[in-house]
Amino acid sequence: MTKSPPAALRSALFALRGGFLLRPLAIAFLIGTAGAVLSAFEERYPAVQAVIPWTLFPSHADPQVAQAILTTIATATMTVVSIVFAILLMTLTLASTQFSPRILVSFVRDRVTQWTLGIFLGTFCYCVAALPAARSLPTPFVPVVTVTGAIALAPVCVSWLIYFIHHISVAISVNTIIDRIRRDTEVVIDELMPYPRQGANTGDRNDAALADLDGVIASRVTGYIRFADIALLCSLAKHYGLCVRLERRVGHFIAEGVPLLRTTRGDRITSERAAELLAAIDIGPTRTMQQDLEFGIVQIVDIALRAMSPAVNDPTTAMSCVDQLSSILIRWLSRQPPRSTYYNPPHVLRVAIPWIKLDGLLDLAFEQIRHYAASDAAVSLRLMRALNDIASAVSDPRIRPLLFERGKRLLDGCDGRLHTEDLERLRGRLSLLGEGPAPSREGRSSGAGDGV
Question: What are the pLDDT digits (tens) for 385-423?
Fold first, then answer.
């Protein structure tokens, strides 16, 4: 399947931006090019060497000293690069086994790590590129300015290595990991839902054209839907006089041969047109955070479930996950839901895109945690408090009953598994949602000041 340039370019840039390829190579190339260009410029204009005092580099006439300095820095730099890679692999392995293999995406996109690899590889390239200029035959020449630049890069690398070790020690903290995932998820929410919520949401308009979807376009690859180029779909649908509906949400798995798009006027869908429409959908082997806000929630939920497992038994981490999930839901509820229908011209439906609704989002964020936390008072209380926080942060009156329903489900699941005192605290917090019975003074005080 041939992708259109915009979709292919966005997918490639997102993949390169989040890996150890584009940024480290770009930094290494720039620093290495600086070494080659500076040594050539210095050889062409030897007068520039006068800017370097003799006290900084006394051996202006000894090429062997310059060669020794450049070789030593290059060798030491590559040794440190191997150490950096060892630290990085250890971090990725530890994070994958202790938290979740799906959080490796956030580590791979870490800019400090990318800059670390780029600076050390760049310093190595700088020294290698400058080394041929330091020669004894046929005419002795010492690139004084270039060698001084290499000497200046050495303490920069040492300082950056210390900072990298500090950064890794902080980045591997579970709270830092969860916070990073939350921030990445909120970025996706800001891109998909840029407008604040305006009162009660009436939803997208329905159109009779959705009932006439007689054309079926099956997926030609297997994988996860990572990105839908809505603008391209609208343009193609208008050009061919169609209405197109995406059958799966972004982030869902699709197998080859399963219907991915349905269209009106199926007789107009040729093999070439089907390929063009499919080119607007990026499908790959793993989920990404391009348009998939559910993926961020899934990562945090995975960490919480693993923390509550008998092998780990870390309810504090699970409570931190619940806190961050509540922040994501509050951000989502504060925005106008993403558009599901797109018109071009204004009264002609062209594209229908499914997005997750509030019910599904609440279930995705809290349902599995609620199930495994039924016998854990601390996590259950934190879940109930999170529901109260969400209810207090939104003004839509239709949301509170949905939150109360999940709070009631949480209380029912804990009934018979927790002590009576813990159940009373849960009931007190449930009553604060405004739909249950009035809380007793004991329930209200235990829910507000117990610190859980």
Answer: 999 999 998 888 888 889 999 999 999 999 888 888 989
Helical packing angle, 5-17 and 22-44, nearest 10°: 80
pLDDT in tens, 255-265: 999 999 999 88
**Cβ atoms of 369 and 383 closer than 8 Å:** yes
As separate numbers, helices (DSSP H) first and strands (DSSP E) second, the chain gives 17, 8
Terminal-residue alpha carbon distance, the chain? 53
Q: What local confidence, expressed as pLDDT, does residue 210 receive?
A: 64
DSSP state of 54: T
Q: What is the pLDDT of residue 10?
A: 63
Q: In whole numbers, what is the pLDDT of the chain averaged over residues?
A: 84
Residue 335 DSSP symbol: B
Query: Burial, 257: exposed, middle or buried (Cβ in 10 Å; 0-12, 13-18, 19+)?
Result: exposed
- Final residue in a domain of this structure, among 113, 144, 172: 172
The total number of structural domains in the chain stands at: 2
Domain that holds residue 136: 19-172
Which of 114, 142, 172 is at the close of a domain? 172
Task: Outline where 251-376 has alpha helix (H).
Answer: 271-278, 293-308, 315-333, 358-362, 368-372
Residue 117 tokens read as: 């690899």
More confident residue, 57 or 233: 233
Q: Which residues pair with 245 in a beta bridge?
A: 262, 352
Instruction: Indicate the residue type of 80.
Output: V
Q: Is the peptide bond before 101 cis (omega within 30 degrees of 0)?
A: no
Residue 158 pLDDT class (50, 70, 90 cuts): very high
Residue 196: CB atoms within 10 A of its CB come to 8
Closest CA to 344 of 230, 267, 191: 230
Angle at 420 between CA 414 and CA 425, to 5 degrees: 75
Q: Identify the residue whose tokens are 């050889």.
A: 43
Q: How would DSSP label each residue in 194-228?
A: -SB--SS---PPP-GGGGG--EEEE-SS-EEEEEE
Confidence of residue 441 (pLDDT cuts 50, 70, 90): very low
Is 282 domain-assigned?
A: no
How far is residue 34's CA from residue 31's CA, in Å, rounded to a whole number?
A: 5
Count of Cβ atoms closer than 10 Å to residue 89 Cβ? 10
Looking at the domain assignment, is residue 359 inside a domain? yes
187, HSE (Cβ side, Cα atoms, 13 Å): 11
**Spatial CA neighbour of 108 closest among 278, 356, 289:** 289
Lookup: tokens for 450:
């117990």
For residue 275, tell me if it sits in a domain: no
